[in-house]
UniProtKB/TrEMBL annotation:
InterPro entries assigned to the protein according to its UniProt record, in alphabetical order: DIOX_N, IPNS-like_FE2OG_OXY, IPNS-like_sf, Iron_ascorbate_oxido_reductase, Oxoglu/Fe-dep_dioxygenase_dom
Function according to Swiss-Prot or TrEMBL: Catalyzes the 2-beta-hydroxylation of several biologically active gibberellins, leading to the homeostatic regulation of their endogenous level. Catabolism of gibberellins (GAs) plays a central role in plant development. Converts GA9/GA20 to GA51/GA29 and GA4/GA1 to GA34/GA8.
Name this polypeptide is given: gibberellin 2beta-dioxygenase
Domain of life: Eukaryota
GO terms for MF: gibberellin 2-beta-dioxygenase activity; metal ion binding
Enzyme's top EC category: oxidoreductase
Amino acid sequence: MVLLSKPSSEQYTYVRNNMPITFSSSIPLVDLSKPDANSLIVKACEDFGFFKVINHGIPLEPMSQLESQAFKFFSLPQSEKDKAGPANPFGYGNKRIGLNGDVGWIEYLLLTTNQEHNFSLHGNDINKFRCLLKDYKSAMRKMACEILDLMAEGLKIQPKNVFSKLVMDKESDSVFRVNHYPACPELAINSGENLIGFGEHTDPQIISILRSNNTSGFQISLRDGSWISVPPDHSSFFINVGDSLQVMTNGRFKSVRHRVLANGIDPRLSMIYFCGPPLSEKIAPLPSLMKGKESLYKEFTWFEYKNSTYGSRLADNRLGNYERI
Ligand code: GA4
């Protein structure tokens, strides 16, 4: 990312913030080592579409190493990073998100999860980076399955792998993203304006697993439309309910609207594993969760939904097109 002395206001979005940013203490917390994890996950998905996971068993050290490698990549000269871009949709992206004019104070790598990426990451210890990425992606897939099995257990539905089998499938269309939000010291943090790093949106997939360094910026929207700041915690994971899970639970779980604000002092680095089903998978409410109720959604395949997301703007209510009136 070419650091601009002052982000030009025609391109970037700012949000008014009349109150200083305070961290919320109400984020649901799930301790994966405790027997009540399944019911707490269900409650969190109903109330927030979001929760934090601790005691996940994933060691911090390799994650920190991956983070250092990612920082190293983002500190390369722009011309080197551009060799891995443009994100189309995979590869290195800078400022532009998606295909329809969304812009943020961000640069990123968007990667597939079931193939090795074939673009060059020059200047980095490429083998080390690749190796760490591969291990991290498989740890995320494993954790996603554990969480999705607990979810099915908490919902008291069978089979237990009803959600996780979609992520375990070798055709699973999961993606991985590394986001770098450079510090923006010129930001008039205290003047009541915040620069948008990643604009508000819901994730289209089943769930997403996010891990970041200890820098703030991540916010979620509550059911009443207000925004709360999530305290950063580099040793925990944060889980977002995505649109596909909202449909599979016939609206019982709601996908969480979230966004990232740029930070005036510290760079933020986050890594997100988006758990997607196979392209041919029909996304529809699970019969075991219907109990005589009508489906709230028209049926679609993940392929159709994914295609429709690429025709949309970040903040759009993408599920709106699939709601039965
Ligand atoms: C949001 C969640 C994931 O980051 C992502 C994003 C994708 C992209 O960056 O290419 C999209 C966005 C995300 C939803 C709407 C479309 C597509 C950018 C955009 C404007 C990789 C995904 O799957 O959907």
